[in-house]
Each structure stands twice: as structure tokens, then as C-alpha cells.
Amino acid sequence: MKGKKIKILFLLVAIFTLIILCTPEKEIEVSDGYTLVLKKSKDSLKLVQYASNLDKSLLTGYQIVKSSGGEYLLTSGNYPSVFEAGMAGFELFMKSGIEDYRIYYKDKFVKDNYRTLLFIGDYYGRQSLYKYDLVKKKSIPYWSRWGRKVLSLSYSEDRNYAFIITALSWGIRGEFPFVRDARLYHYRTQDDDLNELFYFGRGLQIYSYWENEDTFKVNFTKPDTLSPQILVQSIYSFDKEGNYSKLSERKFDLTKDGFPKPSVLKPVSVSPKGKFHFRYIYENGKSFIYLKNLEENKEILIKEYEGELSRNEWTPDEKYLFLTFKSEGSNRKSELIVVDNYSMKIRRTFYGPPYMNLLVHGNLLFFDEENNGISGIGIYDYANDKIYDRIMIPGGCGLKFML
Question: Which residues contact 321 (CB under 8 A, 6 or more apart)?
Fold first, then answer.
């Protein structure tokens, strides 16, 4: 009786194997979605064996398909953007250790704009661009040119593009700032290519900002050629793909208006889905932050600080709020606090340089920090409340600019 059961069991296994072998090969269908490729091979049976050893709970809708090039691909998931696919791939790596995943879209592999990120770092005394790999936790020099020190780096919200401002030199001369040989570069993630976009030349001041998710602006100020006491501020607008759209100008009289200052960043006080709101009050050199749950109509004082609020960021799922404060005292470091919105409590506090730039990147927060007087970048896994990595470059580095 026992022998018959064993024979039946082997027969079922053989039938199951036959079904797999006889299943028609699928061609990858052209769709609007991005998918993860975990492994590729010319032998589909090797992928079947590989897939059988994986934890199925970590995969989403996995299947073995055949590409137009004739290779078999083990795929998982379907995502609306390359960024979300990259984020899913990184989360898979964190849980399973699979690190050689790639992203596939419309019958071709595409660049992962989540896994790698540009930042500014010192390279032989010149501020240059580096590229950081989240999976490998490694940084490599990406772009460095003589006479082209990187002044600022600004990514688009979808991480598909970035704008980089460079200059030969900048600083303070007498009572006024100066910038020499200022230029604007444009970076395309999918092409992994950096191209010069615009030449500004010599002036007094240059700064940039995203007006919205599609429009990038550069403000460039220089003296009027006929009246030195008059300053001309040219405002250049570009779409995120680098196309120049328009130019507007405004003038300032130094004797009446003084030197123009960059606009103060306004805090985004309401969370992405409208469930939370924070209220900021600044009185007598102190900041008071109140957090309110709009659905429950509950508000509490979250933070009192001797200094000003610098900037804030919400996570897309509204679970966390990040706030940075600039200290009034010269001996105190600036603070970054992590607020758990649902418990309405401060979860973490980090300390850093006067200007702490922030970048919410999926379930990670990149932020400027300082260790033993050298600027660096911290990477905080806010979903698991731990530091994932720290980027340190000899001579220092910064997320959006270096001080």
C-alpha cells in the first residue's frame, strides 16, 4: 500500500513537470507598465529551478516569459513608473538579498532611477558630481571638469532629470557676492548623460528652485551696464526635460531696495492626502510647531526650538513629517526631527550643519549631516527607524550643495 502511494506521488510530480515543459512560451507584451527582471537565461528550466527556491511571498505576479531577443526572463510585478519599480526592487533586495535585478519596459531594459543618485562631493579640491549606488553602498566620481565647480544640484520629483549649476568661482568681494562663468547643465537619468544647457557668465548672484514639478527656474543677478546702482535680475524658466520656455526680468535700486535676497521657502503645511496639518509660529526667536490630525480634530504642540524652521517634507503615505531647524546660537547645531504623525510624537532627532537639505526617496530620507567638521550625507530608513548608510567623501559632500 505504501509503495502504491509513492508511485502515485512520483506520477503527480512527473505530470506537473510535463505541464511546465509543455506550457507555451509567452512573449513579453508591450504595455505601459514597468516590471522587475530577477534573472535571465537561455534555458527556461534554469529559471524554473531558480524560481522554485525563492520565497513566493516576496514576489508579485512572477512569471517566466520570452523576450523578443530570444532570452527567457523571470519577471515580477507591474508598476506605473520606473521609480516605483526601482523602489520595489530595492525593497526586494532588502528582504531577500537579490541584488542583480533590473527594470524592463516595452521590450528593453531601462535605467533604475531609484537605485542610483547623484550628489556633490570634493574631487581633488574641486566640487564635482558623484554617483551613489544604494544596493552596493558605493560612491564613484561621475563628472568633474576644470573650471566647472558644481554649485548646486536639483533633481526633478520623478528623478528622471536633474539640473546642475556650475561656476569657475564664487564668493564675497567687498560687500557684495560674485559668481564667475556660471553655467547650467541638464542630466537625463535614462541616457545617463549630462549636457550644457545655458551660459550665464559673470554676475553677482545665482540661485535656482522648482516652481512646480514641471518648471525649473534660475534667478541670475548682475549690475546694469549703464547704471551700476541698478541690479537686473533675469529669471529663466525651463521645463524638466531641459527646454527653455521664457525669460522675465526685474530691477532693483541698491540705494532704495537694497540687495535682492532669495525668496524664503514656504513650508508645505498640509500632508499629501490632507489628513494632517502642522502650524508654525515664530515668536521672540523661538519656533513652535503644532501638529493636527484633521480627521480627529486633534492638535498638540510637537516641538519648541530656539531658532527658525528651515524646511519640511512629508512622506507620500503621510506617516511621517520631517522638519529642519536653523539654530539662532553659533554654538548649537541645526536639528532634523522625524515626527510620527499617527502617534503625534517625535521619533528621532538628528543634528547637522546650518543648512540641512532633505530628499525623501521612497522609504528612505537623504539628509545633510556633519561628522568631525566634514560634511556628509545620512541615509535614514524611516520605515524601519534605522540609519541605512552614511556617504562620506574626503573633503566633504552634500546632497544639493556644499558649504
Answer: 271, 276, 278, 291, 312, 313, 314, 315, 338, 339, 341
Read off the DSSP letter of residue 136: T
For strand 161-167 and strand 149-155, is the pairing parallel, antiparallel, or unpaired?
antiparallel
**CB-CB neighbours of 275 under 10 Å:** 15
The confidence score (pLDDT) of residue 311 equals 92
Apex 179 CA angle, 178 and 181, nearest 5:
145
Q: What are phi and psi of 200, to 5 degrees?
A: -100, -35
Residues in Cβ contact with 158 at an 8 Å cutoff, skipping those fewer than 6 apart: 81, 83, 113, 213, 240
Tell me the β-bridge partners of 311.
324
Reported pTM? 0.88
Outline where 71-187 has alpha helix (H): 82-96
pLDDT tens-digit readout, 75-120: 999 999 999 999 999 999 999 899 999 999 988 999 999 999 999 9
Which stretches of 144-243 are assigned E, i.e. beta strand? 149-155, 161-167, 169-173, 176-188, 193-203, 205-210, 215-223, 230-239
Strands (E), 229-363: 230-239, 244-253, 276-283, 286-293, 298-305, 307-314, 320-327, 334-340, 345-352, 358-361
Residue 326: its pLDDT value, please? 87
The span from the CA of 157 to the CA of 46, in Å, is: 39
